[in-house]
Amino acid sequence: MNKQTINELNKRASRELEKLLDLDKLREWKRQYLGKKGLITQLIKQLPGITDNKRPEIGRQINQIKNDLKKAYDRKMSNLQNQPPKTHRQEPNNWFDLTAPGEKTNLGHLHPITQMRQYAEDIFTRMGFEIFEAREVDDDYHNFESLNMPPQHPARDIWDTFWTNQGLVLITHTSSMQNRILSTKEPPLRAVIVGRCFRNEATDARHEHTLHQIEGLLVDRGITLRHLIGVFKAFLDEFYQRDVSIKIQPSYFPFVEPGIEFLIDCTICRGKGTMNKKQCSTCGGSGWIELAGAGMIHPKVLKEAGIDPQKYSGFAWGFGLDRLVMMKYGIEDIRHFHSGDLRFIRQF
Amino acid sequence: MKISYNLLKEFLPQLDKNPRELAEELSRKLAEVESVSKIGNDYILEIENKALTHRPDCFSHWGIAREISAFYKAKLESIPQRKMPPKSISVNKNLEINIQTSSCLRYIGGVLSVEVRKSPGWLQQFLKSMDLRPVNNVVDLTNYVMLKYGQPMHAYDADKLNIKNGKLKISVRQAKSTESLTTIDGKTHPLETSMMIIADHKKPIAIAGIMGGKETEITNKTSTIMLESANFEMYSIRKASSKLGIRTDASTRFEKGQDPALAAAGFKQTAALLKKHAGAQLISEIVDIYPRPRKQKTIILDTKRVKTFLGINLSLKQIVEYLNSLQLDVDEGSSLKNRQPLIKITIPTFRSDLSIEEDLLEEIARLYGFNNIKRDLPLRKISPTPLNKTIYFRRKIKNILRALGFNEIYNYSFTNEKVVSAAGLKAKNYLKLKNPLSRDHTLLRQSLVPGLLEKTAANLKYFDSFSLFEIGKHIIPSPTDKLPREIEHLALLKAAKELTPLRLYASLKGEIERLFRELNLDKFYFVPLNNNKGYPFPKDGRFHNNLSQVQLITAQNSTWGQLGIISPTILKNFGIQDAAVAAAEINLETLLKLSRDQKLYRPVYPHPEVKQDISIILNQKIGLDKLLEKIKESGGQLLKEAEIFDVFLDPQKMKKNEKSVAIHLTFQSPKGSLSHARVTELVGRIGKMIEKDLGGKVRR
């Protein structure tokens, strides 16, 4: 053992230590040099064998090296421990543009009418209405007769009706469920009916033969026209999340008396009638949009369902979902709804 | 309906509202005025008819003027007293009118000599502004009277009517099924006994209340007319009009129920105008047959209901004022004396729409102004609203499908034979429309898949792969009930240009399984079909004889769905090229019945899991869902999971009808670590079951 071999061992150990990149190898290095049987430890063990006067000097030298290597090891250890894990080490040539768009996902889309329907249903549910659904094909009795429209009643012409060969009706309105609900539920009752309705008219950008309607029905003691207006306005305010202005016009439906129609301030031009100095195309410049037919339930309709109109009164309203969706998004052609075109559906 | 502002002013000389103000007030209190347009020195108001369906009295200027007078409490001129044409001394036609049907409520007739010529300019202009074509003075005046007062009039060329024994015998009767009539529009209509006609002693001369005959129409050569002012029962007119497909200004008015009292005024006004503009002279007696004169009704109104039904606070005096303004007589004498809120109201015959108390309440609300009514919210007991479970689950399904990447499609409920058969179905026993809009929409659908295939073809132009779903009803005629059964279904479809049909099938099946698991279905099987009846899936057998791609989804021994690959033949029928399509259709009602809202929780144990794989050889006919079920049964509580990870054929080592299946088994005990010996014992038990119950072999 001489100074030179000690220095060489020191250099080798330092060189190897420097190259080490992971903790396992580092521990292995420590075993090899500083462990119980390590090379440095062995040198120390050999010290008593040195007999000449160089022993103290060599002893100091080895101790010095041992301490230095120990410190270098600790430094390395702490370096490696603070180093990012393998999964997070960046390859030098693997440049990534953080501003590049993320990867595509695959989420489907629900039909906008489904979404609008759920939105409206939820508001009515919160207001205490039970939700019902309408049949698509029904009989004359439920679509017309039970609603105070005997055969040949002129009001039947209000709706262009599809008939089946058997004389059944493709429902023209969700009111087809009124008699069923009124005759099976005891007042006080609050019901909302949702359904697919049909009108025998040619389709174009603004007309469809297949429509979706939401109808409301409330019967209790002491219900007045005030309540009808109050409840419908409360719904509209929640629906549009603003204080909606309403206007009422007289209207006629044989199953209500009085019969009215609700108009709201145009959601597009906010009732001004103009947009960008042009006539608003949604409301036709009037500032108002016809939204729903409504009225106090006709006593004959109540009686037909076994409810005593002397004791109870109630109201009903109905409106179309399709037009609401069109207004909400500015959809230009009602025929998109049944087109099944994914270029349309995927936008919602 | 068009209304002339100038003509209105004739009835309301003191009216100081301009046409737009008037239009707004009409919209607020009667019916919507859709537009106001200036024509010459007049303004034409277009009023929406639908809101007036119950108001026959408003189908005239006179009627609208009467309403306006109520809105503004403005003075209304009465119908002018006009002089009838002089009675000719020289000629006297012997007119006899005979009503033979209860559907004719009144008939007034009279024969007049006339000079037919063009109408004066003002009349022609007026008719044009009402969208009517001027013809000659006689026809134009009958139209004028109808528009002004609401009474439809008709004039016949009396020289063309058949005379019997010197008598002009006019009858109103039901048509005979052998009769027909060519109407003024030149069309010949075979008549039915349900239709009412006007006839001379030989044949029909008009379809009552709807349209006159061509043969007896007024021409330039006409010198004698028979003028008719009649009234017919509304339902009878509507029925005939819709059967014949003819709607005229007359039928529109009659089918709403005109006031028979108006017939007399109509006759008088027309005859007087004919005297002035056509030099008319009466050459017969005026015959007026009115078998059962309409009586005025009375309605008792409980005035408290103005508050309790409308929510409006009005004094009795105000209520009476509103009613009086509409020309309704109120007998309030007794009520005031007894401090009784009941009042008796006499309804004039022209207000046939007023028959119950609520009708009067509407009149009060309308005149008070619907927009002046305060809002209020009804009170309700705090109790939860019942949940509609169908809607709840349907929403859940839609949300799961959306998360799985499916896009929702709405197709029409209509379909047609061509599309149905293109999808390999037979349109047998489908509900048919009596009056379809087009040839594409003649039937009501009984499968959602044909519609989805149509949309697939359209979307493949823009997209290489996509997933679609629709929830809709099958409409199935029921032999027992009158109403068809409407059974909601869920249809799923996947299309891809780059995938093999089998991959697509596997992916769709995986998504369906995922849906079912999310809905916490207890048990379901996919059972291969053994025949070609797997509509709408392979018809030509090309895909489903080797493996089991065509499957029925069954549970509790009932079939409630189908899944499979759409055959190339069907794809071709829909114009789908270079793409594979897999589809499924599931009965939603059954799915909802099998669904549970509640997840099944299993405790999470800290003890280690032991995994072991087994590989077995089985007959190809044994379904893998069946296999898994049996493994789980025999593995018992300690078998946590069994998952198939490989299925293949190995012709060198196996028989032709065999398949090899490899399964990961995961064991765990709730109590502690499982010993190797215990796991070996469990795997051995499963192996024995496979050999004994399924006739398989465990490979070692």
From TrEMBL, chain A:
Major location, coarse class? cytoplasm
Q: Which family does it belong to?
A: Belongs to the class-II aminoacyl-tRNA synthetase family. Phe-tRNA synthetase alpha subunit type 1 subfamily.
Determine if Chloroplast is one of this entry's keywords.
Answer: no
Gene of this entry: pheS
Domain of life, per UniProt, equals Bacteria
Q: How is the cofactor bound?
A: Binds 2 magnesium ions per tetramer.
| Organism this protein belongs to | candidate division CPR3 bacterium 4484_211
Q: What's the name of the protein? A: Phenylalanine--tRNA ligase alpha subunit
Could you give a GO molecular-function term held by this entry? phenylalanine-tRNA ligase activity
Q: How does it assemble?
A: Tetramer of two alpha and two beta subunits.
Matching PROSITE patterns: AA_TRNA_LIGASE_II
Q: Where does this protein hold Mg(2+)?
A: E257
Q: Where is the Aminoacyl-transfer RNA synthetases class-II family profile domain?
A: 114-347
Query: Where is it found, in Gene Ontology cellular component terms?
Result: cytoplasm
Q: What reactions does this protein catalyze?
A: tRNA(Phe) + L-phenylalanine + ATP = L-phenylalanyl-tRNA(Phe) + AMP + diphosphate + H(+)
EC number, UniProt record: 6.1.1.20
Q: Which cofactor does it need?
A: Mg(2+)
Protein's UniProt keywords contain Nucleotide-binding? yes
Question: Which key words tag this protein in UniProt?
Answer: Aminoacyl-tRNA synthetase, ATP-binding, Cytoplasm, Ligase, Magnesium, Metal-binding, Nucleotide-binding, Protein biosynthesis
| Subcellular location(s) of the protein | Cytoplasm
Query: Which Pfam families does the record match to this protein?
Result: Phe_tRNA-synt_N, tRNA-synt_2d
InterPro entries recorded = aa-tRNA-synth_II, aa-tRNA-synth_II/BPL/LPL, Phe-tRNA-synth_IIc_asu, Phe-tRNA_ligase_II_N, Phe_tRNA_ligase_alpha1_bac, Phenylalanyl-tRNA_Synthase, tRNA-bd_arm
The Gene Ontology biological process terms listed for this entry are:
phenylalanyl-tRNA aminoacylation
Top EC class for this record:
ligase
